Amino acid sequence: MYQLDSFISYLERKNPAEPEFIEAAKEVLSSVIDVVNDNPYYLKNRVLERITEPDRVVSFKVEWENDEGEINVNRGWRVQFNNALGPYKGGLRFHSSVTEGSLKFLAFEQIFKNSLTGLPMGGGKGGSDFSPKGKSDDEIRRFTKAFMRELYKYIGPDMDVPAGDIGVGSREIGYLFGEYKRLTGRHEGVLTGKGIGYGGSETRAEATGYGALYFAREMLSDMGVSISGKRIALSGFGNVAWGAAMKATEMGAKVVTLSGPDGYVLDEDGVSTKEKWAYMLSLRSSNQDVVEPYAHKFGAKFFPGKKPWCEKVDLALPCAIQNELLLEDAKMLKENGVKAVVEVSNMGCSNEASDYLIRNHIPFAPGKAANAGGVAVSGLEMSQNAGHIFWSGREVDDRLCVIMKNIHASCLKEGMDADGYINYRKGANIAGFKKVADAMCALGY
Ligand code: 2IT
Fold this sequence. Notes:
Shape: globular
Structural class: alpha/beta
Bound molecules: (2Z)-2-iminopentanedioic acid
Helix content: 40-55%
Oligomer: single chain
Strand order of the largest sheet: 9-8-7-6-10-11-12
Order of helices and strands: HHHHEEEHEHEHHEHEEHHEEHEHEHHHH
Radius of gyration: 21 Å
Distance between the termini: 20 Å
Low-confidence stretches: none
Number of helices: 17
């Protein structure tokens, strides 16, 4: 029998100075520990020890030259956490906050997220502590290609298929794919999020945001409420926030905030026009990592150094980075009558914040369920690449919508509390975990 506290202490001893990994593990384990203790097969197979240990972590040096001709050194990693369900799959993050521990947390989350999609994908994640902020396009290209010169040794269409994440968008995927092709001579589905003209899938760019809104719509309908007319606070201003703002607008809701490391924008007219969405993309590709110019351009208000969670809204959608919505933010949202919190970034809410929301019976969707649309369409891109075919945007979007509804149904099946409260976090963790644990047991050690 496992005991939660002693198992967490064991993980802390094995993974010192990796607080985000411990936090993510604690969240999953607190949901699944009873399931494991009730299942002699899982106990005999030591699934908890095995599922919390990555298959391997590759760390490598990345040397690149800046515009002044100086040599720079960064560190790159690929965490190949678990491939029980399929090839390792997960994004690459280029951000100053990246450490081995943060990538382990992201790869761990990715295992269960990918399992929830129902597609055959294992869990992985990679990236670098390289910060694109303030870099020129040439510097980004040189760094990205140098990164692939190491990474290509460890990946392959049936082994490990990276994609984008924070700091890695279609521009970087293009450079990465170009370098992989130059090194190997193979045009194959080794990366997802590729440009549509050279093997990418329709709707991949929009998929994370779209999927999160499909999930949010299902959650609200569990409460008998329509998403139309709802007021939404978003954080972030990148690819995920962009997709979410477009789909929310299409559903008749109004997104009133965006945010960046510099503060948040309040746009009472709504982030709801093609011009505003295109501007979000241009802000992102400018590599400045600030959102304030949006406020100047569109006559919106800007609150420096603040987060959008103090606004009175029906829905809060963290779309930026981990631990961006903390306990005091959750309290403020509740005070202001929030109806649901949908985590679109990975672990956007601290455990304390999501515990508080759940204790207070505010519907809370964890990232591994709500943001799975991105990797789901990556899985569809892999299918198209493997079959040498191309699906229309309509076809991909229809499949995405079905996948998000299925994930929602899995959360209901495993997450319904005795008093009728739907604990989506518990439901997602149990449903995602069981499938991986069953496969691990079936495959043997
Ligand atoms: O966090 C995520 O799910 C992603 N960054 C997308 C991963 C992918 O392989 O598309």
